[in-house]
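Q: Got a minute? One more chain.
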Amino acid sequence: MSVPLLAATAAGIGALPEAGAAGFLDRLLPGDGPWELEIGFGKGRFLLASAAARPQTRWLGIEVAGEYFRLAAGRASRRRLANVALLRGEALYLLAAVLPAGFARRVHVYFPDPWPKARHLRRRLFSAASVDLLLAALAPGGELCFATDFLDYGHEVEAILRAAPGVAVERLAGGWPEGPRTNYEAKYEREGRPIVRLIARPEGAPSLHPDGAREVLVALCRPAAGEDAPA
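A: Always. Here it is, folded:
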């Protein structure tokens, strides 16, 4: 991995401890509350506001951009949010090799990079190959919430989720009940830009790709012919 793995909690920022070891999440953020995961939390608007509003829930965030990771970590520290843990790293790597399966009550993905150029499509978070990793993070009865203003990508994600066995997909006609969840969403709503919002609910425990998480990750990270090498 070219991006160093870091963790931020109320205790500060440091190397991710015991990554992948049994029970390491509970040691990272002790407690018995349910987990919710946000992938690509950016400046942390949704995650930090949700953590403050629901202190009994443990919130885990993943962000690859170091600037945003440190910005959100500082905000969480100043607000004394003891129920927040933030990870800096590549989301698919963390899902495949570090985080336990079935730990999250909800997975939130809002306005991920759509990678619109054809040669970069394999870098998208959602694909037919990666959807198992995302769904496998959910506990039984959990749900995945997704939003994007890039309509082609939104339609593709909806098709991928609907093709996954045993997954019920709801497309919201309007916004979230509590209003915009991210800065991007608030901006796009003011501009009148259309947004695709989805909620996916596996009917049972999601099954992982038969090749296993690590093999899926290797396939996703292998550059295709003519594709730029990852930066």
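A: The longest strand covers residues 138-148.
Q: Perfect, thanks.
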